[in-house]
Structure formats: C-alpha cells, structure tokens
Amino acid sequence: MLDGIGVLVRLGLAGVWLVSGGIKVADLNQAYVAVQAYDLLPAGLVSVVAAAVPFLELALGVLLLVGLGTRVVAAVSAVVLLAFVGAVAQAWARGLSIDCGCFGGGGQVAAGETAYPEEIARDIGFLLLCAWLVVRPRTPFSLDGWLTGNRQDVEDTVDTGDPQGRT
Amino acid sequence: MGGAERNARKKRQAQTTGRRASAPVSRGPSVDRKTVIIGVVVVVLLAGAVLGGIIYTNSQKNETEGQSIQTAAPQATYSARRDGAVVVVGEDSAEVTLDVYEDFLCPACRSFEDSYHEDIEKYVADGTVRVRYHMLPMLNDRSDPPGYSMDSANAGLCAADAGKFPEFHLSLYQAQPAEGSRGWDNQQLVELGKDLGITSSTFKSCVDGDEYDDLIQTHFDEVRETSYLQQDFNGQRGFGTPTIAVGEKVVEPSGPNWLDELVRAG
C-alpha cells in the first residue's frame, strides 16, 4: 500500500518536473522573460538562472522517473520549490503583476490576472510530494532498489542506517 | 628523504585503518555505501545538467551573433527627418498627424507594423498623413543581454540622420528578435544601415557611440508621464507600447479601415 503510494508520488513529481522543465526548455527566451519579471536578480544572474532552471527541472524529472537517488533528488526538489515559493511571495508582497512562469509563460500580466495564492498553494502541494520521498525514498520500480537490492528488508536497513544489522 | 618516508608510513597507516573500517563488509560494498555513491552521482548529474543547460542556452542565444539583419523596403519612398528624439515622416502639410509610440522589441508593436505599415506608407506617400515615430526603450531589460530597445531606438535616430529611416524601421520590425533573446548588437545595426545603402561614416559612430541614448531616455521619461497617453490595462492605468495618438487623443487601431476613417475625419 505505502509502496504503491510512494511510486505514484515519485512518478507524479517526476511528471511535474518533466512538464515544467520541458515547456521552459522549448522556449528559453520566454524563460528569460519570466525570470526577469521577478525583478529580483541583476541582469547577469537573470541570464544564468533562466538558462539553468529549465535543465535542472528536466534532470530532476528524469532522475525521479528512473528512481535514482530519490531521497537526494526529492531534497533538492524541495529546495528548488522553496526558492520558487519565496520568489512568488516577494513578487506578491511587492505588488508586482507577474505570472510565475512555473509551467511556461511568465512575465508581466495585468493587475487582475495574477494568481499568487494559487501558485504558492500548488508549490506547497508539490513540496508535500517531496517530503514524502525524503521520508520514504524507497519505492518499487526504481533504480535505487535495483542497484542496492530490491528486498523489503533493504528498505528497513537503509532507514535505520545500519546496514550490518541485516547481513 | 625523511619526508618521503613519513608519507609512506602515513599511507600505510591509512591503508590499515581503511582495511579495519571496511573489514566487516567483505562481501561487497554495503547498502549504505552504495546509497552514498548514488547520492554523489545524482548531485554530479544535477550539476552537469545545470552547467550543460547554461552552456547550451548561451550557444543557442548567440547563434544570431554576426548574422546580418534581413533588409526590407517600404513600397513607397519618402523622406524622414529627425526632430530631437522623434522621427517625423511625411509632409508638414498633411491633414492627419499620427504620433506612434513604439519599441523595436515589443511584439504588439510588430503586430501593429505588420498590419498597418502598408496603409501608413500609402497615406504618407500621397501626403495625407504625417507620422511622428517615438521609438522608446520600454522593454530595455527584456533582451538578454539587456539594452536592445535602447540600442535599436538610437540606431533608428541615426538612420534618420542618414536618410534611411523608413527602410531601417521596417527592416527592424520584420526581423524583430524575440523578447528574452539576444537582440541585435550595434555592429549588426551598423551592418543593416550599410546594407540599406548608408555610406556616411557618422552613422557608425552614431550607433556605436550611443549618440542619442540620453535624448531618448529623457523623451521616454516625459512620454510615460504624459497624462493623455495613459491607458487602462485591466483597471491599472499606465503607458504601454504601441500607443497611437492623434493630437492629444489616443486612438485604437483596429479593423482594416481605422486609418481610412481617421483620414476621412481629418
């Protein structure tokens, strides 16, 4: 049961990253516009962040899809999502009128078209998925399981951090 | 020699300790160790994705570097003269004077030009319409690197000085770079001028020297504060591009006949 949920959580978060990263990679110019609209970084850094984030998202998605280093990937995902929440929150607090550009798009929008609460709520939902995977990274059909031995007791071993206990 | 000996001893010690520590897992690496290795691999992969992404994005954006900007020719030829930060096209005796506020990077301005440049050219050529082009750095921070709006606006004024404004203006709209892209640099703007037949050497120094940047910025600061140019954007008032005005009244270009109607009314 928990395994079933775990694999759904992993693949769900993988899908989120693959879609969001894929859309951004397909239009890197738009990604620049989206990052620039947060009005948070100097121009040189906007360029770097706008170039890096789409590919980071894709890589997180691929790693979650194959289930490699799930705990680390989920932790990095959480850090990235917290940064996104922070960026959206500051835009909201400063009264900017932007689209978060989370799934493509982004940039200035009309005052009535912002969706800050929804965007933050959505990211918090994704953060819950991360939290699940950080706490319980082992899921079926993962490279982690295949590489370290896909036995149920392995999971317990990993979780207790005492590999000798079982062997 | 003593140092080498010490090092060798240290190495031996380290080996012994290492052996002692790993002794219980003689049947291959432990799950713990594998997890650590996987974690390291994953972090390296993520860092690689970031680095590779930055390199790929830069090379993709720099593909336009050194390319020449496609030239375009208006269907009619007419003169243009620079008046401060404004380029005036057409006869002073024209019945209708349009003030066109635009930015060479602005996609909506491109749509406006695509839809109506032929009508405008026709009316300018027959002397019924005069256009005052205000090229503004509205989206100056929307190119990567920033500054294309200002560079192109400056080059537009330089092209007006050199007598090639209509061609230069139309070419830049038809070859408009996307927001967030690299834009055209000064060298490419100079090349475009040459391709359009500008021979004066002052054009190059005008573009390269950002001759009119200050003038344009001052004009832009005035324009964006001008009350009759403010429009509603979903309940927020502000200045945007493109804005078309006749006298002190903003007109909304829509449908195929808005200019015909303006001319008839004028």
Automatic annotation (TrEMBL), chain B:
Residues 87-262 form the Thioredoxin-like fold domain. Pfam families: Thioredoxin_4. The keyword Transmembrane applies. GO terms for molecular function: oxidoreductase activity. CDD domains: DsbA_family. The chain crosses the membrane at residues 36-56. Gene3D superfamilies: Glutaredoxin (3.40.30.10). Residues 1-29 are annotated as: Disordered. Keywords: Disulfide bond, Membrane, Oxidoreductase, Redox-active center, Signal, Transmembrane, Transmembrane helix. Belongs to the thioredoxin family. DsbA subfamily. This is Thioredoxin-like fold domain-containing protein. It comes from Actinophytocola xanthii.
